[in-house]
Design a protein that fits this description.
Blueprint lengths: L3 E3 L44 H14 L2 E4 L5 E10 L3 H10 L10 H5 L3 E6 L23 H7 L3 E3 L9 H14 L3 E3 L1 E2 L2 H5 L2 E5 L2 E9 L14 E2 L4 H13 L5 E7 L10 H13 L3 E2 L1
Parallel strand pairs: 3-4, 4-5, 5-6, 9-11, 11-12
Antiparallel strand pairs: 1-2, 2-3, 7-10, 8-9
Helix pairs in contact: 7-8
Length: about 290
């Protein structure tokens, strides 16, 4: 197809991060731990950093994370990938205090909305239902935060992470429904196996993109089944086969794989992660986040 890619690779000390292999499998942006690309500006638990310094770093990361892709119609497109968004706990309290769900995104919304596609990992469910599953850090955001996510301009959110099940299946299902009802595509979890493992499909110009999302941080017992909601199933050979099928059937021209994995606060990829990334690239994955 003669597609040409131009990327600026960024890295961030700490957090979970993806693998890079040349210009094909690139970590566009990783933010530490459960940090939100916008809400982090206002969480004062980040002692030792001024709000101005944090804001400057995030703005630099967002600019560097813009991936200019020259599609078949020769019109450049911009894809923005940010890290984890966590809108409960201290961030949720700040939203409530300001009485403004837009508040966490005020300083980054323009950059996000200017992109042709904006992606993030939603670190935790959006719901008022469910049962706390007993995690040391259980996240659940008020349904009102959806207004902030829409304002920020997100097109697709990964639910494949180690906090989406913090309040059980009811909260997970609510999250899927709330996102869909508000024009944001979820990926990486769903009401059943097919929905959880289906890629989010986007068309930009004449180019079709398929985005998959997975995590390696949950037991397989929390994967979706034919009748039970859950996360996507990361079985490497099957994922590679699905990428090949998507590419071979022309369902998508570009395949993007998001992986929520690795060790917190470790700033380099393990050999196992590198091996997995190579398998995905060889299967036809074009980008990783």
């Amino acid at each position: 197809m003669g597609l040409r890619f131009h990327f600026n690779e960024t890295s961030h000390a700490g957090g979970r991060r993806s693998l890079a292999r040349g210009a094909c499998f690139v970590c566009l942006l990783a933010l530490a731990g459960f940090a939100c690309a916008a809400a982090i500006l206002w969480v004062h638990e980040l002692r030792g950093f001024s709000e101005q310094a944090i804001e400057a770093r995030i703005r630099a990361d967002l600019l560097a994370a813009n991936a200019a892709v020259i599609f078949r119609n020769e019109k450049p497109a911009t894809l923005v990938f940010v890290g984890d968004i966590m809108l409960s706990r201290a961030v949720g309290k700040k939203i409530e205090a300001e009485n403004d769900p837009h508040f966490p995104f005020l300083n980054v919304a323009d950059a996000l909305r200017s992109a042709d596609l904006a992606f993030a990992n939603l670190e935790g469910p959006i719901s008022s239902r469910g049962k706390d599953q007993g995690s040391e850090y259980s996240f659940r955001a008020d349904p009102g935060v959806i207004e902030g996510l829409k304002f920020a301009g997100f097109d697709v959110l990964s639910l494949a992470n180690n906090h989406i099940w913090d309040w059980g299946s009811e909260a997970l299902e609510d999250t899927v429904n709330i996102l869909k009802e508000n024009g944001i595509q979820p990926t990486g979890a769903g009401k059943n196996f097919d929905e959880a493992n289906a890629p989010a499909i986007f068309v930009i110009g004449n180019t079709r993109l398929a985005m998959f999302a997975y995590t390696t941080l949950y037991p397989r017992s929390l994967e979706a089944t034919a009748e039970i909601p859950g996360i996507s199933a990361f079985q490497l050979e099957k994922v590679a086969d699905e990428i090949k099928r998507i590419k071979g059937s022309k369902t998508a021209d570009i395949v993007i794989v998001s992986l929520h994995w690795g060790e917190e606060y470790v700033a380099h990829a393990s050999e196992e992660q590198k091996d997995i990334a190579h398998v995905l690239v060889d299967a036809g994955a074009d980008l990783g986040s």
